[in-house]
Amino acid sequence: MTTWELHGQQLANCNCESGCPCQFMSPPTHGSCEAVEGYEFTSGHYGDVDLGGTRAAMMVQWPGPIHEGKGTMQLVIDESASPEQRDALQKIMFGEDTSDMATFWWVFSAMCPNKLETLYRPVSVAIDVENRTGRVSAPGVFETEAGPLLNPVSGEPHQARIDLPHGFQFHLAEIGRGTTTTSGELELKGVKDSHVHMSAIHISNAGVLAAA
Predict the structure, then answer these.
(1) Domain definitions of the chain by residue range
(2) How many C-beta atoms surround the C-beta of residue 200 within 10 A?
């Protein structure tokens, strides 16, 4: 197994209500699940391939809860990545060279028998985890805009977190709201003013790392 690590930030926008029932072992809000996730990796490696400065995104869609499978996945890797970096990121995000069940990429890939062709486009990622704002986009594929939860009375930003000590994607994430519009082969119809989580990402082929 080729060892790897990735460090950076991530933003996910799915079609569930804030908090995302999946994080609490409950069915998705609307029965089905669809989401976009964007990543900016400040450092990392796959074997001796340096992955610092790379960006990528993933679109996923399931007809029911994730664990029931039958999903569709499409990866988008920033076109500036070298051929070696592209190959490494695709292998990682397809769950290869990863201990069974160790990462969310492994799980998502296993639950997505339908994998669309990986795209190589400019991927723009701007994430401010502390203030719960962000934007992720790939021209001709998707665009995601995210912001904080707002107090319905005062209109002021409201801070809420999800703490998962044994999570396979993150241990602590800030929660917001976001909307994704799609324009590519994989159409996501229900990701509107819905759940967002943002977090640092520290992960390896053995799972989430406790610290950078």
Answers:
(1) 4-208
(2) 19
Lookup: tokens for 116:
């669309």
Pairing verdict, β 54-62 and 114-115: unpaired
Per-residue HEC secondary structure of the chain comes to CCCEEEEEEEEEEECCCCCCHHHHCCCCCCCCEEEEEEEEEEEEEECCEECCCEEEEEEEEECCCHHHCCCEEEEEEECCCCHHHHHHHHHHHCCCCCCCCCCHHHHHHHCCCEECCCEEECCEEEEECCCCEEEEEECCCEEEEEEEEECCCCCCEECCEEECCCCCCCCEEEEEEEEEEECCCCCCCCCCCEEEEEEEEEEECCEECCCC
Tell me the C-alpha distance between 199 and 194, whole Å: 17
Label residues 90-118 b or e (16+ Cβ within 10 Å = b): bbbbbbbbbeeebbbbbbbbbbbeeeeeb
Instruction: Report pTM.
Output: 0.95
Q: What gap in Å lies between CA 212 and CA 97, rounded to an integer?
A: 20
Phi first, then psi: give them for residue 105, nearest 5 degrees. -65, -40
- How far apart are alpha carbons 12 and 93 in whole angstroms? 15
Q: Whose structure tokens read 């996923």?
A: 60
Q: Are 196 and 177 in contact (CB under 8 A)?
A: yes
pLDDT tens per residue across span 138-185: 999 999 999 999 999 999 999 999 999 999 999 999 999 999 999 999
